[in-house]
Design a protein that fits this description.
By secondary structure, the chain is an alpha/beta fold. It has two domains: 178 residues, 2-Layer Sandwich (VC0802-like); 215 residues, Rossmann fold (3-Layer(aba) Sandwich). It contains 13 helices and 14 strands. It is elongated. The mean pLDDT is 92. Magnesium ion (MG) binds next to loops.
Length: 405
């Protein structure tokens, strides 16, 4: 028997720790708004650019309820939403014994038709309102017993059963679910201030940007493009990476592309090869710190990790930081490459990142760059070229590529 659509909804769960008082409202507002936008985005991708999501969204008892049928679009939107611990498509039934039992039997029947007979199951009841006389354990036993009667092939297993039948008892309408999809965790995007992510074409920077989104900061996106010394395939790759990052933020961001090759050439002609990578990086940071406030960003995000390459020793990072006027967030600072690769696979950026394409940092670079630099040395080198003029030129040449996802 199929359930009428108005009895279908999706239940969202989030971690409640640290969500007291005002905090919680703020958190829920962001989460609800993001989910709505992501669902709408999927609807628009379906062909109608004006599509709106009209499903009602309500909050009760530390949960969010979306009044909508379960479909691929809703699933995908929720799978890309930070801030959720899990979510379930649910059926709503009147809060009385007969309806709960009938609903549970029908949901298990539907589950078996979709997935085949599970080896074992257990009922997991939770009472948000204590309107029924039974305790949660008594309800588990009552409904579990009825399910055993209806499906003689089933067995009960309390630890790690193949199927959980969830019951949430509420005052008027209670919820029944058989599927619980894990969420991405983290905090809803927008619950923290925006940052500007520096995206190269490598493995690390998209992971760093997505990790930052996971802590609630929307990320604006920029790339330093080594044109005319690197090919267009590099730009195409970064545009594709930007699109992957945008999957995880409800408002997709455009990519700001800074022409950088000529600037690097100017630096290379004037300076010592050993310090070049650090000098390039200091220029990037200066340009990014000038752009960030225009985009409402409060800091930068990079994919740097301690000791991974010569420019990422503590001394060199300190020299790079000295050129910054905003904080530089480095989410991967203690990760090793295997951990970063695993993250890239999890977020879906790995295949794109390993496409061939030279990063501009390798242009005119020394084969044995300095492992240790000092701010004084860097400043001495920088007296040989017009730093501010090059920064201004770079800013004036920025091209904005429309937001995609
Ligand atoms: P990635 O895999 O992110 O390229 P990496 O290990 O190759 O990192 P570097 O090339 O030293 O390291 O770059 C360190 C960080 O500096 C990058 O993670 C990125 O945030 C930033 N960066 C480097 N090159 C560029 C670029 N062309 N455009 C924007 N940001 C860059
Ligand atoms: Mg790189």
């Amino acid at each position: 028997m199929s359930t009428p659509e108005h009895d279908r909804a999706v239940l969202l769960r989030y971690h409640e720790i640290a969500l007291k008082g005002q905090n919680r409202r703020w958190f829920e507002d962001r989460l609800e708004g993001n989910v709505r936008l992501l669902i709408e985005r999927g609807l628009r991708a379906g062909g109608d650019p004006q599509a709106r999501f009209s499903g009602k969204i309500t909050r009760q008892h530390g949960r969010i309820l979306i009044e909508t049928a379960w479909n691929e679009n809703v699933r995908e939107a929720l799978c890309n939403s930070f801030g959720l611990s899990s979510f379930s498509p649910i059926r709503k039934v009147p809060t009385d014994h007969a309806s709960l039992i009938r609903g549970a039997i029908e949901e298990v029947d539907a589950y078996i038709r979709r997935h085949g007979q599970p080896s074992d199951f257990r009922v997991l009841s939770r009472r948000s309102d204590k309107v029924l006389p039974e305790t949660s354990v008594e309800l588990d036993q009552l409904i579990g017993g009825e399910l055993l009667r209806a499906f003689p092939g089933l067995k009960v297993k309390l630890e790690k059963p193949a199927l959980y039948v969830g019951i949430e008892v509420r005052r008027d309408r209670s919820f029944i679910w058989t599927e619980k999809v894990p969420g991405l965790g983290g905090l809803p995007v927008g619950s923290n201030g925006p940052l500007l992510a520096m995206l190269s074409g490598g493995l690390d920077s998209p992971v760093a940007a997505i990790q930052t989104l996971r802590r609630g900061s929307a990320t604006r996106l920029m790339h330093f493009y080594g044109t005319p010394f690197v090919g267009e395939e590099v730009l195409r790759k970064v545009i594709d990476l930007a699109r992957i990052v945008n999957r995880y933020q409800p408002k997709p961001e455009p990519l700001h592309v800074v022409p950088f090759g000529k600037l690097q050439e100017r630096i290379a002609l004037a300076t010592s090869p050993k310090l070049r990578t650090v000098l390039y990086r200091r220029m990037m940071v200066r340009i990014a710190c000038a752009l960030a406030p225009r985009l409402g960003a409060h800091g930068l995000v990079t994919g740097e990790s301690l000791g991974q390459v010569a420019s990422q020793t503590v001394e060199n990072l300190a020299t790079i930081n000295a050129a910054a006027t905003l904080p530089i967030i480095r989410p991967l600072v203690t990760c090793d490459k295997d951990e970063i690769i695993a993250q890239a696979q999890r977020w879906g950026s790995y295949e794109t990142s390993i496409r061939p394409g030279l990063d501009c940092c390798t242009l005119f670079a020394d084969r044995h760059p300095a492992l240790h630099s000092s701010i004084d040395e860097a400043e001495a080198q920088e007296s040989r070229f017009p730093v501010q003029e090059l920064v201004d030129e770079a800013l004036a040449g920025i091209q904005v590529h429309e937001a995609r996802w």
